[in-house]
Write a structure and sequence with these properties.
- The complex is a heterodimer of chains A (about 450) and B (about 130).
- Chain A is α+β, with helices and mostly antiparallel strands and about 450 residues long.
- Chain A folds into three domains: about 260 residues, Rossmann fold (3-Layer(aba) Sandwich); about 110 residues, Macroglobulin (MG2) domain (Immunoglobulin-like), CATH 2.60.40; about 30 residues.
- In chain A, strands 2-1-5-6-17-16-14-11 form an eight-stranded mixed beta sheet, with helices on one face. In chain A, strands 20, 22, 23, 26 and 27 form a five-stranded antiparallel beta sheet that branches.
- Chain B has four helices and no strands.
- Chain B: InterPro entries: DAD/Ost2 (IPR003038).
- Chain B: One of its GO terms (cellular component) is oligosaccharyltransferase complex.
- Chain B: It is a multi-pass membrane protein.
Chain lengths: ~450, ~130
Amino acid sequence: MASSSSSWTQTLLVFFFFALPMLCTSFNPDSPSDRRVLVLVDDLAIKSSHSTYLQSLTDRGYELDVKLATDPKLTLQSYGSYHYDALILFAPKVESLGGNLDAAAISDFVDSGHDLILAADETTSDTIREIASDCGVDFDEFEKAVVIDHVKYAITPLGDDHSLIAADNLIDSTVILGSQGIKEPILYRGLGHIVNPTSELGIKVLSASPSAYSGRVGAEITDLPNVSGASMALVSVVQARNNARIMISGSLELFSNQFFESSVQQSGSDDKFEKSGNQQFAVELTKWTLHERGHLKTSNVHHHKIGETNEPAMYRIADNARYSLGIQEWNGKDWQPYQADDVQLQFYMMSPYVLKTLSHDGKGLYFTEFQVPDVYGVFQFKVEYNRLGYTTLNLAKQIPVRPFRHDEYERFIPAAFPYYGASFSTMIAFFVFGIVFLYHK
Amino acid sequence: MFELRLNRPSSVQFSGAMASTAKDAQDLFSAMRSAYSKTPTRLKIIDVYVIYGLITALIQVVYMAMVGTFPFNAFLSGVLSCIGTSVLGVCLRIQVNPENKEFKDLSPERAFADFVLCNLVLHLVIMNFLG
């Protein structure tokens, strides 16, 4: 009875341990549709010019709070609790944010696990650049520079200015961009940026074509552009270590109704598309950013000796252990079993002694069996799962491994019987010899 | 001519030497046997005991060479028990030999008591080390 109640307490503790990161993040697994989003704009006209995009969020159950970025009453939190789960910054021009908002407050917002969508344009202020830079993304700082592509510019009813480009250099990831795939080129007008090479977390989602460069429209190029070619990113995302997600776009117009509805033809190509890929791209990428896709959780982490069911406090060398856990993915409505063949378990002490790929039953239960290595010490069961677009799974559970006890060795070894026999025969020989030696004649 | 004369007697000498070596060895053995037959029975018993220990040790070494060293502690205690027994037997033989003047002050009873004590200690260790 006592042991069952203590195992209950353990289970609860383990549950809280794993639930804790979830409770801290903006993402509430129980009611993700109740999320509150603050939309900051320069000009309330964006409400109508970007209405399709904003409407798509409302349709999926988000509560939008559209405010002017200079609103003096702006605040993200009061008494340590945040009023919003995500922030959309569609205010590239704003020099100083209203209320108590500044770049540091937005960094704190992201650091506490909340999501951020930021869009810039050619008039981007230093404040917005600073926020992007805090996220590891640097916009080109050359004055009035925009992305220009003389080869792959877009031919649209909106004009065929070479600063309006049709980008199709997308990242190959169904989790970030959705499983349908985006076939149409994406209309883009705005700044180019580079993902800081020292940032391990930034991912370029939409890159410029090799012929693109960042420069002033109509001006002669006298110096080498700061950023050019495929290394220049147009839209990138960052997934922070706390699984907060950030989307940074150099173009605010990418999200506009005008671009969503426009037909598009890439120069040099005969394919003419009735509708640009913008709407699909923006909506799918937003779904990812707001954790509607690629968000994993683990459950029922358990290990035991084969033949037993309880979790032991300690293993012995040469024990056969079984480790199992459940992994689920959020699909926007409920938790679905996650299926992947590349989840690995490490039995780890300074370095992995055992590294095994977990098998799964198709219902989200991952498991493996292995023999504890012939080394004793304090080990860890470690699952480290870092995959592009998915939340990082990082589980570690400490477990000691002891050597054989003195009475766990084999008592009589058949191979040693001649040695036992020889030892006892010399003893008998000694006894017989003693009698013969003393009593002869 | 010169070589022939040298060669012939030498080959004769050699076959003669072969015969004489065999005869010498035979003489040596018979001399040893007759000398050994004068050895007191008490010492002969000790000799049998020592030889028994050595042969047992040898068998175990051969067995280890075939089977492998796996229970090495058992192998060591088996072999050392035999070697130790033989060494103690030799020590006893030296002490109880009446021709050995070095131990003339030591009575055979005292020598045997020492021998028994040493054997007890040896076998105590062997039992603990065996497995």
